[in-house]
Structure formats: C-alpha cells, structure tokens
Amino acid sequence: MASTRLNNTTKEEKTFFGSNPVLRNAKKSVNQDSGTESASYKGIALKCLIFLIMMIIGVALAMFLHNLNYSTIYIDDDISANTAEIIGGLASSVLVLALSIVCIFLKKTIPFFGSLYCISFGFLYAFMANIFKEYREPILLAIIVTLSIFAAVVFAYMSGKIRLSSKFKQGITIAISALVISSVVIAIGFFIPGLREISVFISTNPALCIAFSIIGIIIATLSLVKDVDTIHEIVESRISAKVEWKIAFSLIFSLIWIFVEVLRLILAFKDN
Predict the structure, then answer these.
(1) Residues 6+ apart with CB under 8 A from 63
(2) What confidence score (pLDDT) does residue 138 get?
(3) Model confidence pLDDT, tens digit, residues 199-234
(4) 3-class SS string, the chain
(5) What local confidence, expressed as pLDDT, does residue 118 receive?
(6) 4 pLDDT exceeds 50?
(7) Residue 65 pLDDT > 80, yes or no?
(8) What are the backbone dihedrals phi and psi of residue 141, each rounded to the nearest 5 degrees, phi first?
C-alpha cells in the first residue's frame, strides 16, 4: 500500500515538473536549496513591478531626449527628430532584439539584461510615438487592450474557469514554436531571391497581416495563461525564490508580445 502511494507521488511529481520548463529547471533548486526562501506571489509581483518601472524609465528617457533642442533633423514636413533620439531609437531597436535572445538562453542574467530590455522597449515605443504622431492613439489603445486581456486572464484563472492540462501546455508550446519558426522563415525569405516575392506578399497583404496578428494575439494570450498557471504552481509547490526573476520576466514578455500584436492589428485596420 505504501509502495503504491509512493509510486503515485513519483508519477505526479514527474508529470508536474515535466509539464513546465520553468518548473523542470527549478526542480534542482527544490532538491538542493531545501530550507531556503520559497517563491511568493508578492516576490513575483515585486519583480514584475521593477520591470514595469524600467519601461517607464525608458519612456521618460525618450521624452527627455525628444525635448532637447539639439541638431534637429527634418525627415518630413511633420516628422522631425534630434540626433540624440535617433541614435537612441536605433540602439534600442537593436537591444530589444538582442536582449530578448540573451534572456531566453542566459536566464541567470535576467535581473540585469531583463531590466535593460524593458528600458530599451519603453524607449523604442516612446520614440516611435514622438516621431510618428499617428502612432500615439494606437499605442495607447494597445496598452488598454493588453491590460484588459491581462485582467481577464487573471480573473478567469482565479475564479477556476481556466485550468491547464499537461497536454494543453504542450500544445501552447508547439503553437508558439510554430509561430516563431514561420516568422523566422518569412524574415529569411526577404534575403533569398526565389522567396523574396512570397515574403513581401505575406508581409504586405492586408488580409494576411490582420489574420497573422489575430493568430499572434491568441497564441500570446495562451502564453500569458501558461505563465499565470506556472506562477500558481511555483508558489503552491514552495519552489525556491530563485525562479521569481525568470517567471516575472516571462510574464512581462508575454504582455509585451500581446501589446505588439494588438498594436499591429490596430495599425493594420487603420491602414485599411
């Protein structure tokens, strides 16, 4: 009887940790750091707040540079920017791409590089709003929609309306992988003569742009649901607080992903 109970516990543990990569990596922390501080909702929320503050700092820095009367360049009649903010905009666009890759593969660097990523992201979109005035309302609307989606997901999960099985989580991972791979293939296609026309058509066709944005929003929202579920499992399982930075950044990254996809959808409708 005791051996049966032990076998069931072992099976549950394997399924539980195997269903989530963050939990799977954190298992070592549970075994090796017993007695240390456990992850908490408060700790994760605090780290999410730090990342959000970093974004606000990026926005504030972009606004500061925009208001400098230094070496203004007139790109068009209604578009102008000074040298400092143009350099900042170019640098932030490169950093957003590079640091996202760094944080995915070097998770121990997330407290520093994740914060720098958030500063760069905040700067980049504030820079876009400063330069292209027609982006201001869509960006504000995208923020409101993103926060609404986040509130809806949290409410639905807390009320018990959303519960994820291990197979459903695997499905989300497959969907995310498929979307990333297809995006990379389309991007690479721009540099291959035989595929360039196809990539241009996919990227510029209004109906396809709207369809891809809607699919992106759905998958990004599922990623957010998975993050909320992971947070619940981590806290309830009393896993080491060392994973708080990782899951907090994952949550912020999902929110950023939703924001970008929503903004793309709004701009696609606006262009048409």
Answers:
(1) 126, 130
(2) 92
(3) 888 888 888 888 989 999 999 999 999 999 999 999
(4) CHHHHHHHHHHHHHHHHHCCHHHHHHHHHHHHCCCCCECCHHHHHHHHHHHHHHHHHHHHHHHHHHCCCCCEEECCCCCEEEHHHHHHHHHHHHHHHHHHHHHHHCHHHHHHHHHHHHHHHHHHHHHHHHHCHHHHHHHHHHHHHHHHHHHHHHHHHHCCCCCCCHHHHHHHHHHHHHHHHHHHHHHHHCCCHHHHHHHHHHHHCHHHHHHHHHHHHHHHHHHHHHHHHHHHHHHHCCCEHHHHHHHHHHHHHHHHHHHHHHHHHHHHHHHC
(5) 97
(6) no
(7) yes
(8) -65, -40
The radius of gyration of the chain's CA atoms, rounded to the nearest angstrom, is 21
Tokens standing for residue 229 = 């579920």
**Token reading at 156:** 């639905």
| Tokens describing residue 121 | 């992201």
Kindly report the pTM of this predicted structure. Answer: 0.81
